[in-house]
## 1
Amino acid sequence: MDLQTTIYLVVGASFALYIGIALWARAGSTSEFYVAGGGVGPRVNGMATAADWMSAASFISMAGLISNMGYGGGLFLMGWTGGYVLLALLLAPYLRKFGKFTVPQFIGDRFYSKSASTVAVVCLLTASLTYVIGQMTGVGVAFSRFLGVSSETGIYVGMGIVFVYAVLGGMKGITYTQVAQYVVLIFAYTVPAIFISLHLTGNPIPQLGLGSNLVGQDISLLQKLDTIVVELGFGEYTTTTAGSTLNMFVYTLSLMIGTAGLPHVIMRFFTVPTVAAARSSAGWALVFIAILYTTAPAVAGMAKYNLLSTVNTAVATNGDLYAPESSLEVSKQPDWMARWAKTGLLKFEDKNGDGRIQYYNDKTKSEEAKAKAEAAGWKGNELTVNPDIIVLANPEIALLPNWVIALVAAGGLAAALSTAAGLLLAISSAISHDLVKGVFNPNISEKGELMAGKIAMAVSIFVAGYLGLNPPGFAAGTVALAFGIAASSLFPAIMMGIFSKKMNKEGAIAGMLAGLLITLFYVFAHKGIFFIKGTEFLDLIGGPNPFFGITPEAFGAVGALFNFIVAFVVDKFTKEPPEHIQHLVESVRTPRGSKAVDGAH
Amino acid sequence: MDKSGEAYWKATLGLLTKILAVWFLVSFGAGILFADMLNGIHLGGYPLGFWFAHQGSMYIFVALIFIYAKKMGEIDRKFDVHEE
């Protein structure tokens, strides 16, 4: 069977599975629509949370980023997993005890203010909408690269699939499809990694393989990688940081706080039956996430080694990397290089006209590497590799059979679709529950609200699809913004709502707005107002990264700090929250008396 | 809040502090601030600081959440505020 047919079969089978689940898990009440009826076990919820959380970026892009960044890429690994410790300890069990459908509802009730909940809705919508654009484009990308259809067609098909299970089933449909999607994506990710690890190091467990010796050599994979990349003028793989150590520190912290504050993740913990289940479920979620996240650095390092040894034959033979015959002849390039060159993800330009591909860092600061390249007659780096290839072309680089390639296609789609569905639910429930029921029409019947929820979901899917089809030109920069907003506005507000009995509405609202605005200000200064090109105002704030060299992507933690400070200062000068709110906080802090989640305002 | 409620919350915060201290030490400490120093030590083929950043901190995070869940359950029962 040829590759294309195999891919169609595997992807088609996975879609049939999702639709089958959707028909089985239809939502008949608001409780089923918002929280899957509230009876999801901690392991099942953990698995669904893992799929909800791991997006197209985690599946397709992360390993490639780490591959390029080396040690510094660890900030994604620690940041995106360490957030679950914060979520488990500081938020999830308490919000579960509170027992309502949405995050803005907690903020609105705890800070006894419709304005507070509306500010939270605005933060939630901005964070989730920017995030969902990336998922939709991810669906389009996966379709166009693997199934040979246009990315527009891909987005339409993706919208159709999500529509079926999200509108019919709400959280119930999404939960069970996410479980299936997790299974698909984790197989798709680990199977190629196991083969590659076995091939390079003889150890089938990638996490151990990365720390092992290369087959037939007396040197560890990482040590060899360090030697080669340094000789080619790149930074050492195991020590190169992402910017300054301070920036890496703050960036990691921002991703952690942002992860804990993302509403579509928090919401998943409303579906478990008890407070104790919410605690352990966060642990299970992280187990399932860590299976992929600990494999990713192995994929990153091994793919880097594979790429280097493909392009430069001296890598495997321990020969002279700069010898003329070491560089790969263009006519002898493997099939996968030619195939991916067509997609534009891999570019080759024979700058010195020798018919061979030279891959090195031509902007190196190492005098030694510079001198060697010059002596060898190299006229600049000739190969550019998009980080996404590392995962997408992995099975081909490792010469794995067609069904593995098909599995990776289905896995990429599962990752993008599961995250899109979770985000869409967060968006539609904020609209139908917090705006329609909470603000505009408090007397709406349960049936009416369920209908409003389904309509909001359908509309959200079309908006997300539209934005995916017409990405506003700033799609790439927006995921960082989603984390920045979640970290600087939502996380501190929820945390203070639980851990400070005396925090009042004035403090919370001022804090959320301050955190949100300063983060937007810093990001827009670098990337343009609402990401419109030409509206950057870096001069005004004194050049790029003026705040201790912190990059805009890493700024969320600073925004959160700002939020806390403003909130406590305002709180000092305004009056205490009423008595019943302080009792509410006390009751949120103890598990006894937890009941099924409901939506009463 | 009554006496036992206050004691319960104090015990909870004590546990959170301990767990977050470890959370901080393995990621921000071993994985970032002291990574260079730890890289002198090797764990198999891994330099130790690099291992913490790319592997170790994640394993420890998982363990931390389960330890937290278990200890919190014990605290709940001790102060008789657990769910039925």
## 2
Amino acid sequence: MTLPPALDQWLTAQGWALHPHQRDMLARAGAASTLLIAPTGGGKTLAGFLPSLAELADGRHKGLHTLYISPLKALTADIRRNLRRPVEGAALPIRIEDRTGDTTYTQRRRQRADPPHILLTTPESLALLLSYEDAPRIFAGLQRVIVDEIHALAESKRGDQLMLQLARLESLSPGLRRVGLSATVEDPAGLAAFLGANTQVLQADPGPDPDIQVLITQTPPPWSGGGGRYAIGDILAQVSAHKTTLIFHNTRAQAEIFFHHLWLANSDDLPIGIHHGSLSREQRERVEQAMADGRLRAIVCTGSLDLGLDWGDVDLVIQVGAPKNVKRLVQRIGRANHRYNAPSKALLVPANRFEVVECQAALEAVKARDLDGEPRGPGPLDVLCQHILATACAAPFDADALYAEVTNAGPYASLPRAAFDACLDFTATGGYALRAYDKWQRLMQRDGKWSLRDPRTATVIRQNLGTIIDSETLKVRLKGRMGGTPLGEIEEAFASTLTPGDTFLIGGQVVRYEGLNEMTVQVSRQPGRDPKVAVFSGTKFATSTQLSARILSLLQQPDWPNLPAHTAQWLTLQREVSQLPQPGRLLVESFPYEGREHLCLYGFAGRNAMQTLGLLVTKRMEDQGLAPLGFVATDYATLIWGLTPVTDPASLLDRSTLRADLESWLAGNAVMKRSFRATAIIAGLIERTHQGRRKSGRQATFSSDILYDTLRKYDPDHLMLQITRAEAMRGLVDFSRLEDLLTRIGNRIDHIHLDRPSPLAAPLFLEPGKVPVHGLGREKLAEAAAAQLMRDAGLI
Amino acid sequence: MYTFRLATADLIALPSGALRWPAQNLLVVSDLHFGKSERLARRGGALLPPFENRETLARLEADLNATAARRVVCLGDSFDDLAAAEAMDEADQLWLTTLMAGRDWIWIEGNHDAGPVSIGGSHRAELTVGALAFRHIASAKTPEISGHYHPKARIAGQTRRCFLIDAARVILPAYGTYTGGLHAHDPALTALMAPQALAVLIGKTTLPMPMPR
């Protein structure tokens, strides 16, 4: 395939020459499935589109030709603008439109009646399109599907859902060609199999090594805490010295706190904005626009800017806090210098002494091009349940045909028929062992085909499509006329702890909580006061297995000339006071602090597995009468506190009964309930919206907990519980990583008694996300608290 | 359990959410919401685990065995709707009938189940025993025992269902398995209850505390 002359001339007139991989994509235009791996700035999106532009240039194709799917709504609009330039410049007869949750109703209706040649959309909008009765007509002539940032989609259930949709599209338009576009991939073959059988991998020149360093600050990082506030002066100096800087944080809360203090220190009034997923859309769009116009010198941001928008002027990326995962770090570094073959410049800012070690390990991994990543599990069944329901919305289906179609999707290629049947049974009858909904099945078999019993339920099913489960949030608005200015959203759990007069940070400003009106948090401005708290937890990533191993081996060095002196001294102090954790052994420290007995286990198994370790160990402590009160887990350690000291940690870590304990622990813990809630929403057991009205988050949480308890009791082998368990084992619970740890350490446990927290343990006291243990200890405290309130009120 | 006096009656709030009046050999429960899953399924919604009836019945049976009450007052919204009452599973119906056998059983009407059901027992809009009135929704006519609001409250980071108790009235927590709750600090509840009101949290034990406002 060659470029149409008009486009060729236009490109030449712009002084643009195609990169080799862009030519390769044209040459392979006929391939059934291609995965293009190219560095950021390498023009991979255009590479993906070139064959479409060539095929559409003669104006003969009627209807939809190419479907482009991106993980971000913002990206679809951006790509539409970028794509229109060559198309309009070369006067090609090609209609390009985007379709997302933000597209107007009228436009969406028109798109269904008269689809454009190229439609840019997201997996969620595509799911909706495919659920309509007229889907076969819309997609009949579809030739190509382009999946952008496919590595990002593959990290979540959105990717599984999308691959099921591609299988559906393949049935509607046989011979469909697939293209996946990706920047950083640790396992190209795995990602290729995810995209589809017989996918060819096209690897572009990866470009020069990034220029990456740990920022040397005047003030050493604090002993503990996060957010990198100590480095603000040095970071501002870097911002001044560069054109545009992206300052990445790992959580929204840290981004907020950092931004607040950055502004207080910003004596030069450098224009700096903030961008994260909890801010209102209006606010995010303002920042994006200002950035695109080159009006900002820096943006404080989170994962919301990991992907996408092409801002050519970014010449420095600063990562505040340890990057947790080498692949993500490389991705973020790639945001600087969106120019092909120019090295990206990045600085790492460890937030505390431990992160100095982690940043050093990550830096060495990037230099070694040693990317990390856990292998993908098989396609999750809750997503399949949703897909079955969505399929029924479009038209009655034959079970055998749907099974065959589903196994064409990469993640479901080895799906057993029994598992498919269990999902079908769940969507049709609820799948309960003990009692059936004879009269009220959701799907009925009529003339051999499955269809909705009540066609009106299609509306509800469509409203619940998608695999993104929002945490329960409330909108925050400034109190005032016209409903007040929207500022963003806060988690409902956080809102419920506020009382009028409390102050907190949102969008970089301090606001005062006034009250709750319907589902909106009303606030007023409160300048110049220290906020009580910042709000959102955001996503917490677990440090990858590979990076953890690198950190542990770094700790084994006799001294640390590659680390700053302060951190080397800290590790030396830990070695003197206690000892440093070693690979193949487990360091356990016991010490009293502030009236509670503490136990610190340095497992280095990642946040999720360390959290599970906390849950299992506290359960055993409860059984042994040690009255644990709670714990907190980080990527490297779990800190447990309680009323009684632990003398024999080995008895708490006995692996032989661990599995059994895990099973009984599954009965009632919050992590499992959260996991169940997500699964139940995706599979259609709980509705996230009903007749257009969003259920209040609190009620949804409450009822899903009760459903979980009820199922556990009456139908413990129910599909939803099987899925929840399987998910938790590799996700939130990460039991496999914990088992690996316990296998590795065997009985090599080093138990050290101290009279105060050790240097390594100290940071844990300031960790957010403490998990309460609802046992004897807490029952005692609740009684004491209630009695105190009664006494204070003069009632006893 | 939490023992208190309303008007002249000595009452006991049980950790299960039932209210006991020993002098009258009487047990009160509210908002059982039998048949909730069946009602949602009928309307074409999700097919929830259809086990809430037996779960609610199991707890009710335990309370009846423990208290040996001869008279039972269900304070309304006993059924999620009237059709749900008629469609109750045979085994569940039999179980309920067994519990009712030999007891004076009074169904008070609620907003979900206005109208008689064929299940037996007597059906009343309201009931008066001694000085106390029993109705679904709290009114100005006190002393009274009511339900309807499904009150809940927070203590030490936990949310629990609760009784609300002051000198004039008691509001019972929802007893049914598939029920949500309304925070005690909601204006609907703070407007009803006197400033000195208590919230008695239920669960493993009863925990009295000043009603959160």
